[in-house]
Design brief:
Blueprint lengths: L1 E4 L2 E4 L1 H10 L3 E5 L12 E2 L2 E2 L9 E5 L9 H16 L4 E4 L6 H12 L4 H11 L7 H10 L4 H19 L1
Parallel strand pairs: 2-7, 3-6, 3-7
Antiparallel strand pairs: 1-2, 4-5
Helix pairs in contact: 2-3, 3-4, 4-6, 5-6
Length: 169
């Protein structure tokens, strides 16, 4: 788990398990594989998520498969509201399975929502969690939602790709 900006963390399902068991803060799970089951806690696709709020940790599930085109934008306002409602009270963990694509995309979009420049926000994200590797279509959809025109979107995506290359060295 890595803090991206003050009280906003990105992590994996393992980080979420710890946070949900230990309590404190809030957890935003981004993943269809973390399906809710109101009657019991169980393994789902070999990944355990405590489905009952045993720790007092505020938890929200957004059901989105990785790489699913055309869907991330419809969940952004819901994600931003959850983050806004919880971030002043303590850490908010946004996670997906590995903490690389879906959760990174939501955290990046949150920084844009708060007024950050797309490249500055991506640099902050990548610097603080080097493993991030968002699905390019998620980034494209998010930029389009922020009303960037098609040529600017392609330019920004190329700059993000270049930034990824530079930060791997």
């Amino acid at each position: 788990m890595n803090e991206i900006i003050n009280n906003l963390h990105v992590g994996s399902v393992t980080d979420a398990q710890l946070a949900l068991n230990e309590g404190g803060g809030a957890v935003l799970s981004i993943g269809a594989e973390f399906s809710k089951n109101d009657t019991q806690d169980e393994f789902f696709d070999n990944v355990y998520i405590p489905l009952k709020n045993k720790s007092g940790c505020n938890w929200k599930l957004i059901s989105l498969w990785d790489g699913q085109q055309g869907n991330i934008v419809r969940y952004l306002e819901e994600a931003w509201k959850f983050i806004d409602d919880n971030i002043e009270n303590g850490p908010v963990l946004v996670h997906c399975m590995a903490g690389k694509s879906r959760s990174a995309s939501v955290a990046w979009s949150y920084m844009l929502y708060k007024g950050k420049d797309p490249l500055d926000a991506y640099w902050i994200l990548k610097k603080n969690r080097p493993v991030v590797d968002p699905y390019p279509e998620f980034l494209r959809e998010i930029l389009a939602a922020f009303k960037y025109n098609k040529s600017r979107i392609e330019e920004l995506l190329q700059q993000i790709k270049d930034l990824n290359g530079m930060m791997k060295k």
